[in-house]
Design brief:
It is a multi-pass membrane protein. One of its GO terms (biological process) is xenobiotic detoxification by transmembrane export across the plasma membrane. Keywords: Cell inner membrane, Cell membrane, Membrane, Transmembrane, Transmembrane helix, Transport. This is Bcr/CflA family efflux transporter. Helix 6 packs antiparallel against helix 15, helix 7 runs antiparallel to helix 14 and helix 8 packs antiparallel against helix 12. The relative contact order is 0.15. The protein is 76% helix and 0% strand. With 427 residues, the chain is mainly alpha-helical. It has one domain: MFS general substrate transporter like domains (Growth Hormone, Chain: A, Up-down Bundle), CATH 1.20.1250.20.
């Protein structure tokens, strides 16, 4: 064959090397699957740790800083949650523009600095300001970890991974109140904040040395007002994103109602404050178990079948507790079983709702996670704060949160799914 002929030249020209396949799953983060789960859970645990470890310290904080009204002490929780919720709107767009690591690591540093600054506080208002800053720093963790998972996984795989992350993460609320009580046995309440700052520095080191950037430069979005408006429009044009975000808002309202009220439920209603950490841990164990089950079965049965059924269950358990509370104080064990069932159901609903809302928004995962987070978490914190302030020495406000918020969420889901529950062809 003549090498100068077109055919000869084509035959003599070596075939170009194929482009490398894009990395998917935990390979994109540069670490193994189990380390990916562990790191994501450890980072996310900052949020639960910042809330749950505070619960046994609320009386000591109130006494030390002159807070007379017990309900006002709940602001230590709600202010953190508000800062956490509102700041999420910043970190999604920033991480979509600059990458995940360059935004995540400074956010953790802000959290750690605010934690350590509490050591020098001598008035309640300054404490609340620092808790607000803590929440802002923690918001970077929640948003960017979710975006990292979405960078690496999608659909039911994302729901499965988030369930495993949530399962490991649930070890924190199981242990956090007991850890808080243990710290208070040997030190003043400020030592809890020193513990939080040290944990933040530890997790920042793990992230800095092990986690690779999961958002390639080619996939980043320019930071511009027009781009932000477009991204927000994408979120609000999605029926699924809007409906399930509103549903998540109501779910978090029930969750925060439980968190801000439960210490007073044990102490004021039943006079069993010493058992609070154990009771809280049992509820958290139930949520962890349901998250494990969700991670195992979500690919087989689908996000909607599991989450819709669990939402109905949560609403029903809350309604039973409400009826019992209207006729007096329910038996301590009955009330705890019903509250645990409500929280167990929440564990099956929350991650699936978030995954359904995020599914059509993978191309703007950071911003989408921000919008969903700021609406659901901030709105949930406000609703939970309202229920907490309504605490009147009975279980009626808390049971109304589970039954009422659950019922409204169910109506929203019905509208979103056009009257069809449990299954959808694309799920």
């Amino acid at each position: 064959m003549n090498e100068n002929s077109p055919i000869g030249r084509a035959a003599a020209t070596p075939a170009p090397n194929p482009a490398p396949a894009p990395l998917n799953g935990s390979d994109r983060a540069g670490i193994g699957f189990y380390e990916f789960i562990g790191l994501a859970a450890a980072l996310t645990s900052i949020i639960a740790l910042s809330i749950d470890i505070m619960l046994p310290a609320l009386p000591a904080i109130g006494e030390a800083l002159g807070v007379v009204n017990e309900n006002d002490r709940q602001a230590v929780i709600t202010v953190f949650a508000l800062g956490f919720g509102l700041a999420q709107i910043l970190f999604g767009p920033l991480s979509d523009r600059f990458g995940r690591r360059p935004v995540l690591l400074p956010g953790i540093a802000v959290y750690a600095a605010a934690s350590l600054a509490v050591l020098f506080v001598d008035d309640f208002n300054t404490l609340l300001v620092l808790r607000l800053i803590q929440g802002i720093g923690a918001a970077s963790v929640r948003i960017i970890v979710t975006a990292i998972v979405r960078d690496c996984y999608g659909g039911r795989d994302m729901a499965r991974v988030m369930s495993y992350v949530f399962t490991v993460f649930m070890i924190v609320p199981i242990m956090a109140p007991a850890v808080g009580q243990a710290i208070l046995l040997v030190a003043e309440w400020q030592a809890i904040f020193a513990f939080l700052g040290a944990a933040a520095f530890l997790f920042a080191g793990w992230t800095g040395f092990r986690l690779k950037e999961t958002l390639p430069v080619a996939e980043r979005i320019e930071l511009s007002f027009k781009g932000l408006v477009y991204a927000f429009g994408e979120v609000f044009r999605s029926r699924l994103a809007v409906g399930y975000t509103l549903g998540s808002l109501l779910l978090f309202g029930a969750l925060f109602s439980f968190i801000v009220s439960i210490q007073q439920v044990y102490d004021s209603i039943y006079g069993m404050g010493d058992w609070f950490a154990l009771g809280f841990a049992l509820s958290a164990v139930g949520m962890a178990i349901t998250s494990i089950l969700n991670g195992r079965y979500v690919q087989r049965y689908g996000m909607r079948l599991i989450s819709h059924g669990a939402l109905i269950a949560m609403m029903s358990f809350g309604a039973i507790l409400l009826v019992l509370s209207l006729f007096g104080t329910p038996n301590f064990y009955v009330a705890n079983i019903l509250l645990a069932c409500c929280m167990l159901s929440f564990g099956l609903v929350a991650n699936n709702f978030n995954s359904i809302a995020m599914e059509p928004l993978g191309h703007i995962a950071g911003t989408a996670s921000s919008v969903i987070g700021v609406i659901s978490f901030t709105g949930g914190a406000l609703l939970g704060g309202m229920i907490g302030q309504a605490f009147n020495g009975t279980l009626i406000p808390l049971s109304l949160a589970f039954s009422g918020f659950g019922g409204i969420a169910l109506v929203i889901v019905l509208i979103t799914e056009r009257g069809k529950l449990f299954v959808r062809p694309v799920d």
